[in-house]
Here is the input.
Amino acid sequence: MASLQDIRRRIKSVKSIQQITSAMNMVATSRLRRAKEAATANKPYADKMKQVVTDIAANAGDFSHPLLEQHPEGKRLILVIASDKGLAGAYSSNAFKEAVAHIENKANTEIVAVGRKSKEFFGNRNYDVVSEFTGFSERPRFEDANAIANDIVKRFESGEIKEVLMVYTRFVSAISFIPETVQLLPFNNLSGEKGAAHAEYIYEPSAGDVLGYLLPQYLVTTIYAALLQAAASELSSRMNAMSNATDNAQELIATLDLYYNKVRQAGITREITEIVGGAEALK
Here is the structure.
């Protein structure tokens, strides 16, 4: 049986952990509101960008661009977006499972890791991590998406990459976030479904030139939207994980308090029994 001092020390330790998890829960809750607002505000822009690019592609006719080229041979590059820090439940591990499901051959796959957890996971398992971007998983900026897009475009245009996939976590609600995989390059089916109505624009100098300018911007916008969705998902997962940890700590403290009282009562009963026994022996 543990001594009273050991139990008190354990209760103090659990209370300290509870204070930390409670503080992290409040911080994540505060940041989640801003991250959710940023993701929500960006969505109409990203959707409109996709619509405009689709409309222009439908009117561009036979158009060639480095980002549209098909490379029959080459490696597959996977952009994996995860967190910089832990204590976010299964957020990162779910993204990693989604990414690994698309890896058929390690030797024929390159990884662009976003977030320290992504870099550590794939680096420790001997995957070919060709680039890493860290330090902004909770608060991504457009410049971060631009740097990632430039790196991916450079590798794709070299001809060594045949396909670029992006794995991120889509934010649904405060308790729901889903890992998803989208193909970034080459751009496929930009013209949309056959027979679908498209907006008519007047192009200067030509639809092809306008589309050629917009395709890199469209890539950056897609990556930035995914970073915002992932940031909201990470903070939501951390908020839920810290909330559950705080509740579990409270339950553990209550259990330890009960155990402490039982041990103390047993000690008092034992002392009374010894006193009574000693008094009877002196008669």
